[in-house]
C-alpha cells in the first residue's frame, strides 16, 4: 500500500508495497548490490594482483608492501565515510552524495585499468573518495524510510544487507575469473561496469524514496549556510594542495614515502579521529543528556565492531593468501581461482539473512539486545579462526588443505556477521542524533576502517609469523573481547535509553 505526503512525495513510513516494506528499499537494495559488486570484485583481485609477478601481469609487490597497501585502501574506504557523511548532512543531502560517490567509483575502477603504477594509485584514491561518499549515505537513507519506532527497521536492514551480499556473491565469481584467467585489468573494468548499472538503477528508482535523504540539515541562518559551504570548499582546496605538495616532494626525492610508512600514519589518524569525535559527543556542548548516554552506547558498539571486523576482513587479505598458497582448489579436475573463495561469505549471507530477519521478529520480547548480539558475533568470530589452527599447522609442512576448512570458517564468520553488521547499521540510525545522522553513520564505518586496517597489518605478517600463531592470536583476541562485552551488556543497554 502506498500513501503520499502533502507535497506529492511517497510517504515511505506507510508504504508496504515491497514485501511489507517501502518500495524505496528495493531501489537502495539494488544500488548497494551493484556498489558492492564493484567493491568486492575489485577487492577479490587486489592483493593477488599486487603480489603476482610482473611477468604474469601483476605489480610484483612483496607481501609486506601489498598487505600495507591493502590495509590502507580498505581502511580509508571506510574512514572517508566520516567526511562523506558530514558533507551529505550539511551540504549535498544523502541522495546527491550517493550519486556523486557512484560516479567517482566508476572513474576509479576504470583508472585501475591503466598499465601504469600511477594509474593504479589514482584509481585507489578515486575509489576511496567515491565509496566514502556513497557507503554511509545509502545506509542512512534506508533508516529514513521508516518512522521512529517502526519495528520493520531491523528487518528492513537485514533485507538491505542481502543486497550487499548478493553483489558480494556475484562479484568474485565474475570479476575474479576474468581477472585471474583473462586479465587483471579487465577484471577491474568489469567491476566498473557493475557500478554503472547501479547508478542507472538508482536514478530510475529515486522516485520511490519519497523525501528520504533529499535535503541536508537546514543551517541556523542563510549566512551560516554560506559560511559552511565556503569553509568546506577551502578545506577541500587545502587538502588538495597539501597532497599535491607531498606528491611533488616525493617525486623529487626530497622525502621518502613508503606504503609501510603511510600505513603506520593511518593507524595514528584512526585513533585520533575516533578519540576526537567521541570526546566531542560525550563532552562537547550542545548535546542533551539522552544524546550523551546514547553516544556512550555507540562507543561500546564501535569498539566491538572494530574487533570483529579485524578478524572478518582478513577474508580479502591473509585468508586470500591462504586460499591461493595452501588450499587444494581442484574440484572435479577444475582448478578454480583463489578469488572464488570470496563469494562464499556472501553465499552464506544470502541463506542466513532471511533466517535472521525472521528470527529477530519471531523472538519478540525475548529478542537479544544489540550489545548481546554483538557479543555473540565476537564469540563466533573467534571460533572461526580457532578452527583454522589445525589446517594451518598442516600447511606449514607444505600440504594443501581441504577447501572445507575455509568454507567452515566463512560459515561461522557469517553467523557472527548477521549478529553484528545489519544490527549495527540499524542501531546507528536509532541511536544517532537526527541532525548528524550521516556523520554518525560515517563514524560507524570508521569502526570497520579500524578493523580493515588491522586485517591488513595481519596480512603483512603472513610470511614472517607462523600461521598457527597468527590465526590463534586472532581467535584469542576476538574471544577476549567477547568476554569484556558480555560484562558490559547491561550498562550499555541502560545507556541506550529505551532504544532496543
As a percent range, the share of strand residues is under 5%
Fraction of residues in H or I helices: over 70%
The main sheet orders its strands as: 1-2
Number of helices: 17
Integer-rounded radius of gyration: 22 Å
Distance between the termini: 27 Å
Shape descriptor: globular
Keywords:
single chain, 500 residues, mainly alpha, two-stranded antiparallel ribbon
Secondary structure: elements and pairs:
Blueprint lengths: L23 H28 L11 H17 L1 H12 L1 H18 L5 H28 L7 H31 L1 H22 L16 H30 L7 H25 L5 H24 L5 H9 L3 E2 L2 E2 L7 H21 L6 H17 L2 H7 L7 H29 L5 H24 L6 H29 L5
Antiparallel strand pairs: 1-2
Helix pairs in contact: 1-2, 1-5, 1-6, 1-7, 2-5, 2-9, 2-16, 3-4, 3-5, 3-16, 4-5, 4-7, 5-15, 5-16, 6-7, 6-12, 6-15, 9-10, 9-16, 10-13, 10-15, 10-16, 10-17, 12-15, 13-15, 13-17, 14-17, 15-16
Descriptive overview:
The chain has 500 residues and is mostly helical. It is built from 17 helices and two strands. A hairpin with a 2-residue loop joins strand 1 and strand 2 (334-335). The protein is globular and about 65 Å long.
